[in-house]
Amino acid sequence: FREQPPLADPADLEARLRAGRIKLAIEIPPGFGRGMRAGHAPEVAVWLDGAFPFRAETSRGYVEGVHQAFLREVARRARVPSSSPPADIELRFRYNQDFKSVYAMVPGIIMLLLILIPPMMTALGIVREKELGSITNFYVTPTTGLEFLLGKQLPYIGLAFANFVSLFLLATLLFDVPFKGSAAGLVLGAVIYVTATTGFGLLASSFVRTQIAAIFAVAIISVMPAVEFSGFLLPVSSMSADAQAVGRIFPSTYFQHVSVGTFTKALGFESLVPDFLAMAVFIVAVLALARAALKTQEP
Question: What are phi and psi of 150, to 5 degrees?
Answer without folding.
Answer: -65, -40
